[in-house]
Amino acid sequence: MTDSFKLQLKAMRLVIIIGMVIMAIKFYAFFITHSNAILTDALESIINVVAGFFAYYSLSLAAKPKDNNHPYGHGKIEFISAGFEGGLILLAGIVIIIKSIFDFIHPKEVELLDIGAYLAGAAGLFNYVLGKFLIKTGEKNKSITLIADGKHLLSDTYSSIGLVVGLLIITLTKILWLDNILAIIFGFVIIITGYQLFRKSLAGLMDEADITVLKDVLSTLNDSRNDKWIDIHNLRVQQYGSSYHIDCHVTLPWYHDLQTSHDELKKMEDIIYEKFDGRVELFIHPDPCIVFSCAICQLSECKVRQIPFEKKIEWTLENVMKDEKHQI
User: Fold this and answer.
1) Are residues 175 and 218 in the same domain?
2) Do both 8 and 120 map to the same domain?
3) Is residue 172 classed exposed, middle or buried when 0-12, 13-18 and 19+ CB atoms within 10 A define those classes?
């Protein structure tokens, strides 16, 4: 297991332990206040803890090396983890809204909302610090699981801020039915958060193009562009947890022997490996140039040119993702 995965697992253990403490605080606040709005916050804490355990398992599995049954590794489990968390959040939001509507019909007395507000505020502060820590750790280690958990905790924090403000307003105005209104609003906010996580999970499992990563790859290749690399096309990126699989076609001079072509492709591989800190598997297919390639080829020492050079074609997402050689 790499140091990166060890750090991620350590972070998730911390999330689970602190999450259980936060959950206890929120449920204590609910039991002394009987507030649906606070119950909303408490139910989301259950999700945080359950999702934390599943995320820990997912990271442990993703850390396993490639094998014959999983030639690309086990990283896809991280998308399943994010989808599982998103599904739980969606379910919690729906339950909260249903309960709040029910309590409009059969109202319950709420009390000690000021104490509940202080407890919810303290829990929200813990979530904010923990969420920032997870996002920073996730971005450093390119972990979708940690980033998803961190963003979820930050959204929980913003909900807690709104909750505290709402509880203080209810305490001052004595309009107790506002508690259910507040809970319904937060229920919809939670549903939106859950949908976003679930949508990102499906995108990863379906290998949806990650434009941000593609732009990083393209920018790196443009910065190190070599005149012998006539064009790059059919560029594709797949994510497996914190690792990427990248494949593309590169047009090279047709008269290069196998060793020369291999050396050029190796240069390109080294550039990409350095950019992604080795967390990438790169497959490059060499294509020989043809007559119309001469018009965009910047290789001045070419002795077999058939068409004069006309202009340099900039590599953009539009032309590198197409499965065809570049031409004017």
Assistant:
1) no
2) yes
3) exposed
Q: Are 218 and 312 spatial neighbours (Cβ–Cβ below 8 Å)?
A: no
Tens digits of per-residue pLDDT, 98-136? Answer: 877 887 777 766 777 788 888 888 888 888 998 898 888
Same domain assignment for residues 57 and 199: yes
Q: What percent of the chain has pLDDT over 90?
A: 27
**Host H or E run for residue 83:** helix 77-105
Return the residue matching tokens 């999970």.
201
Residue 184 in any domain: the answer is yes
**Residue 167 and residue 257 share a domain:** no
Cα distances (Å, whole numbers) of residue 30 to 2, 104, 110, 186, 251: 42, 18, 10, 15, 65
What pLDDT was estimated at residue 318? 92
pLDDT tens per residue across span 42-57: 877 887 788 788 778 8
Domain that holds residue 312: 211-320
> Which DSSP state fits 74?
S
User: Quick one: 195 and 67 in the same domain?
Assistant: yes
The whole-model pTM stands at 0.61
Q: Name the token pair of 281.
A: 């598997």
Total domains present in the chain: 2
**HSE (side-chain half, CA atoms, 13 Å) at 30:** 18
